[in-house]
Design goal:
Layout (H helix, E strand, L loop, with lengths): L3 H18 L4 E14 L2 E15 L6 E12 L18 E13 L2 E8 L17 E9 L5 E12 L10 E2 L6 E11 L2 E10 L3 E14 L2 E14 L4 E13 L4 E12 L28 E10 L7 E11 L6 E11 L4 E12 L5 E11 L1
Antiparallel strand pairs: 1-2, 1-19, 2-3, 3-4, 4-5, 5-6, 6-7, 7-8, 7-9, 9-10, 10-11, 11-12, 12-13, 13-14, 14-15, 15-16, 16-17, 17-18, 18-19
Length: 371
């Protein structure tokens, strides 16, 4: 079983560290995670304790140095039935998953090394114990009013979605993946973004998204549209479309959202993260819909902060409509509670019905202490 004394000792060390190191540019997080997974005739329980310690130096002539050391300790090594908590063998591991040199001059920023990326097809996807991180050289510019330009050469990645979570694995061999993106917010209530990814001799990815928000009396509305094309060098390709509508009653915190995605062509791919699709759930995304697939999604949320500070609920339903094979569905229910600015807890339950890949249920619970 999980060693509670080790966990409590680490919590104590981190609490002391937060007081000692805060002024020196240190920050971090301790995470206690548990999941239960039931896959037809097989089930598993898993508990883990994770630690993240980050440091970023003060700037000198616009330059700073940063890094993050992250590790996870598992109570045992069960079969990997749910979201991976450990390494490729589901064992405990540690990794220096950030180590970068950052330069900021005016509206330009350059980051070289192991770093966080949050783009449509390469993102952190923090759904387990250790999120995705990337070895890259990234340039960000905001000199043009209301516009942000991102250029990045991404060489390798690690983390929860990577082929080998515990080490940085090359993306597209020595060629890597080149990324270009632009975001524009110069029109009131409207945000536009476009991205292009080039993986030599493998695939070209284009992604476009528009979102518009407006407040009418006591309800805030947001509308979204997305398009992506995944064009493989072998001749296979697809066109992906998506739309979403969300309304939130501001005084009560109640929200309702509906979304739709479809693939025209081969199955969609999330590539280097959780994927950008509007209908994505905790486990299933448009990728599981296969060739010419569709996903319908409806979600209810309640930010109960006006009644109980820090409390929020959510539930979602997705229908995965496959073109040839049997359909599938996923139901998610979540509860989040922030005890204070440093301690929070999240519980997520997912129920998947799938005649092709099999039914399964997954319960994940996390307690986070940040400093």
């Amino acid at each position: 079983m999980f060693n509670k004394k080790i966990a409590m000792s680490l919590f104590a060390v981190l609490a002391l560290g937060s007081q000692t190191f805060a002024e020196e540019g240190f920050s971090g997080e301790a995470r206690l995670g548990y999941q239960y997974t039931d896959v037809e005739t097989e089930d598993s329980n898993e508990m883990a304790f994770g630690v993240k310690l980050s440091y970023e130096s003060a700037q000198y002539m616009g330059l700073s140095l940063g890094g993050t050391l992250q590790g996870v300790l598992l109570d045992e090594t069960p079969n990997i039935l749910g979201v991976p908590f450990g390494d490729s063998q589901n064992e405990s591991y540690g990794i220096l998953n950030e180590l970068y040199l950052k330069g900021i001059w005016g509206g330009s920023q350059i980051i070289v090394g192991r770093q966080t990326l949050e783009t449509p097809y390469a993102d952190s996807d923090d759904i387990g114990m250790v999120p995705n991180r990337f070895e890259a050289a990234t340039y960000i510019n905001s000199d043009i009013p209301d516009t942000t330009i991102v250029l990045s050469h991404v060489r390798s990645w690690s983390g929860v979605d990577a082929p080998v979570p515990e080490e940085f694995t090359k993306m597209n061999g020595s060629d890597g993946v080149q990324v270009a993106g632009i975001t524009y917010v110069g029109i009131e209530n409207l945000e536009l973004q476009g991205w292009y990814y080039f993986a030599n001799d493998v695939v070209d990815l284009a992604y476009l998204e528009a979102s518009y928000g407006i407040a009418l009396d006591a309800i805030e509305f947001s509308f979204g549209a997305q398009y992506s094309r995944q064009d493989y060098d072998g001749g296979d390709n697809n066109d992906i479309f998506g739309a979403s509508v969300e309304g939130t009653h501001t005084s009560s915190g109640l929200g309702l959202a509906v979304a739709y995605n479809q693939t025209d062509g081969i199955a969609a791919d999330n590539f280097f993260g959780g994927g950008p699709f509007f209908t994505s759930m905790e486990h299933y995304t448009l990728a599981e819909a296969g060739d010419n697939g569709r996903v319908y999604n409806v979600a209810l949320s309640w930010d109960a902060d006006a009644f109980v500070s820090g409390l929020a609920f959510g539930t979602g339903y997705a229908k995965i409509d496959r073109d040839i094979q049997d359909d599938a569905q996923e139901i998610d229910v979540s509860v989040e509670y922030a005890f204070n600015d440093n301690i929070s807890a999240t519980v997520v339950y997912s129920d998947i019905s799938d005649d092709v890949d099999g039914d399964f249920q997954n319960l994940r619970a996390f307690v986070n202490y940040s400093f």
